[in-house]
Every structure is written in structure tokens, then in C-alpha cells.
Design brief:
Rossmann fold, 2 domains, 5-stranded parallel beta sheet, 40% helix, globular
Length: 311
């Protein structure tokens, strides 16, 4: 496995520990030349890349594609595997529609295995000729043995990384908070100065290592990026039996479409009113679904079955 370190490491670790007939290793960039000098041998070698798109025009993208081609030639009987995570799909489609995508690199990868972290990514990948299958990234998710009760006061939690504040809907969230002054909003992930438009009902927590406590104090988890693979906060929100608002169709998740201040305000107001009337319970159906659909071993086996079918 090569590519994006955070997710590539997790995919490799899961396959290595959960698929009994497979050995998987993540290779970091410092080891690329050593791997090329001593490529893996055998009848069933799979070369995987995670989050590193094909055919990009950036210098880094061109360099990795050139390295990937050399590695494929060094292991001529290998199977190619591409794990698409979200932003890599968005950037590929943007270049394809602009006419700048390097088509030779794309054509060389069309017969490889393509897996997308979200079913909504499949039609986007089809635009460039990649027939992908949907398998959420297998990884251990935060999951309490028993879901904590909903808090007595209605509360919203969202993830807004500091370097992609607008991309993750930061301005929409803050305006919704301004229109709901009686509702507490918890923002995780953001570091740096507090935006000027933030109101007093918004709390900024920065990077949080103990996220189970944050899910436990939330009634609703909001995730509204402009483009996404299946976000971990969506899965973990369901596993904690929370109500989740998301721009994509996921079972037992409240889809927001379009992603606007008005749409978010209306959804949150409806949930707040249900909470106030005592009719909003835990999202137990969502938890039951997530326990099965996003089980690490189950997802690893789906990946393993897909790989075996191509060997």
C-alpha cells in the first residue's frame, strides 16, 4: 500500500490483521526507491494506492504517476488497486471537466481495481471511465458498548478543520448558530483565532483526542463539507446513536439538500423542537445499522473478496 499515509496505513493494517490469507504493508515515501530496487515477488502481488489520484497535473502527481508506472513494470504480474477517498475524486473530476486531466495515465489505470469510500463517488469516477465499487475504509471506529443518553439540553457538534473552514461549511454552521441562540454548538478540529462572526453559543475545542465524550454530549452531529468520502464523524455519530445531518444519502442519516443556512436551520430547529417536546429519542436504528455495515472485519472481508476475485 502506497499513498496517503493516514488512510493507507489503516487500510493496510486492517487487511493484514483481518484477512487471514493476506499480508499487507504500508510503504512510506522514504522507502519508495528501496521498493523499486527490491520489488515484491510472487504470483499474487497487489500494488495499492490510497488517495493519490491518477492523471493529475501537479508536479507531485506527475512524479507519483511516473513512479507508479515504473513500479508496475518492475512487478509485471501484479494487480493494480486504487482506493478513492473523496478529495482525490473531486480534484480528478475538476481536471477532467476542465480538459487538463492526463488521459494516458487514466487509460493505463482503467482495468485496475477501483474502490470508493462512498457510493456517491461511483458516478463521478465513471465520468473518467473508472468502474468503482463502494467499500467504506475498514478501520476501528469509536463505539460505546451502550450508547449514552441524549443530553438534557439540545446540543450540536461539528468538525471544522482550521485549514478548510469554508470547505467544511464553517460559515453556514456559524450563521445557523446565530439564528439559534438557545442551542449550544461544539466545534472540534479548528485551531487558530475564533472567526469574528462566531456567537456566544459556539464553543471551540480544537483538536480533541477523547471524541467519545464529545459524541456523548451531542444531540446532533453535523457534517456538511462541499465534497466528501464517508466521514468518520458520520459513522461514529451513528454508533453513538446520535442524529446526523449530512449532504449524502446514508441510511438513518438526515440528508441536507441543498446545503444552505436555511436548510440547516430548519433541520436543527425541527430536531430541537422534537427534543423539547420529549419525542426525540436515541437514533437506535442508525446505531444498529452502523454496527453491521461499518464493522471493521466485515469491511476488510469485502475488500479481500474483491481482491481475490481479480487474482
Amino acid at each position: 500500500m502506497l499513498g496517503q499515509p493516514y488512510w493507507g496505513t489503516r487500510i493496510a493494517q486492517t487487511l493484514d490483521t483481518q484477512a487471514e490469507d493476506m499480508h499487507a504493508t504500508f510503504v512510506d515515501q522514504e522507502s519508495y526507491l528501496r521498493l523499486l530496487a527490491r520489488p515484491p515477488r510472487g504470483d499474487h502481488v497487489v500494488l495499492m494506492r490510497a488517495g493519490y489520484r491518477v492523471g493529475g497535473t501537479t508536479p507531485r502527481g506527475r512524479l507519483f504517476d511516473a513512479y507508479w508506472s515504473a513500479l508496475r513494470r518492475a512487478v509485471p504480474r501484479s494487480t493494480g488497486f486504487h482506493y478513492w477517498l473523496g478529495s482525490d475524486v473531486m480534484d480528478t473530476i475538476t481536471e477532467a471537466r476542465a480538459g487538463t486531466l492526463r488521459l494516458a495515465a487514466v487509460a493505463a489505470a482503467r482495468d485496475d481495481i477501483h474502490v470508493a469510500d462512498g457510493p456517491w463517488l461511483i458516478p463521478e469516477l465513471a465520468e473518467v471511465g473508472f468502474a468503482a465499487q463502494d467499500v467504506h475504509v475498514p478501520q476501528p471506529h469509536l463505539c460505546p458498548d451502550v450508547p449514552p443518553p441524549l443530553p438534557s439540553a439540545f446540543r450540536v457538534m461539528t468538525y471544522l478543520p482550521g485549514d478548510r473552514f469554508e470547505f467544511y461549511g464553517g460559515k453556514i454552521v456559524l450563521e445557523a448558530a446565530r439564528r439559534l441562540p438557545d442551542v449550544a454548538f461544539d466545534i472540534v478540529g479548528r485551531t487558530g483565532p475564533t472567526p469574528r462572526e462566531a456567537t456566544r453559543n459556539v464553543a471551540w475545542h480544537g483538536w480533541v483526542s477523547g471524541m467519545s465524550a464529545m459524541y456523548g454530549r451531542a444531540t446532533v452531529v453535523v457534517r456538511i463539507p462541499q465534497h466528501d468520502g464517508l466521514g468518520a464523524t458520520v459513522v461514529e455519530g451513528l454508533l453513538h446513536a446520535r442524529h446526523v445531518i449530512y449532504p449524502y444519502r446514508v441510511p438513518f442519516v438526515r440528508k441536507i439538500e441543498p446545503v444552505t443556512v436555511t436548510a440547516l436551520f430548519n433541520q436543527l430547529k425541527g430536531l430541537r423542537d422534537a427534543h423539547a417536546s420529549g419525542t426525540l429519542g436515541l437514533n437506535l436504528d442508525g446505531r444498529a445499522y452502523a454496527l453491521t455495515a461499518y464493522d471493521e472485519q466485515h469491511l476488510a472481508e469485502r475488500l479481500a473478496v474483491l481482491i481475490r476475485s481479480r487474482l
